[in-house]
Specification:
- With 113 residues, this protein is α+β, with helices and mostly antiparallel strands.
- The protein has three helices and six strands, in the order βαβαββββα.
- The longest helix has 14 residues.
Length: 113
């Protein structure tokens, strides 16, 4: 029987953005709800525009699960900036929609992307 590999969860952030702690708390909560280890989150600081471009970093915080962004950046420019997410109800937020995050983690657990 195959063992289930936990998804790789990354939080990319920029020092100038105040939303990192809120995004990390939300991510830890949702990982815990799904039985994943919140301590396994890979925190990666993006410090330069060059790194932002190389990482396809469209703002802080960016959460990726198995390499996929929890919300498609839809052609937004890369750079050292705060990110804006669109919530399911149409509002904008500095952190992703809880349901989008949960669904992305659940898909990764099921082996989908």
């Amino acid at each position: 029987m195959e063992s289930i590999r936990p998804p790789k969860v990354e939080l990319l952030w920029w020092e100038g953005c105040p939303s990192t702690d809120d995004a990390l708390a939300l991510l830890r909560e949702e990982m815990g709800r799904l039985g994943l280890d919140p301590g396994a989150i890979e925190m990666r600081e993006v410090r330069t525009d060059e790194t932002a471009e190389r990482e396809d970093f469209v703002g802080s915080p960016t959460i990726r699960i198995d390499g996929s962004d929890v919300q498609s950046p839809r052609g937004e420019p890369t750079g050292l900036t705060c990110r804006v997410y669109k919530l399911r109800d149409g509002r904008v937020s500095p952190i992703p929609d809880r349901n989008d995050l949960h669904d992305a983690l659940a898909r990764a657990l099921e082996g989908g992307d």
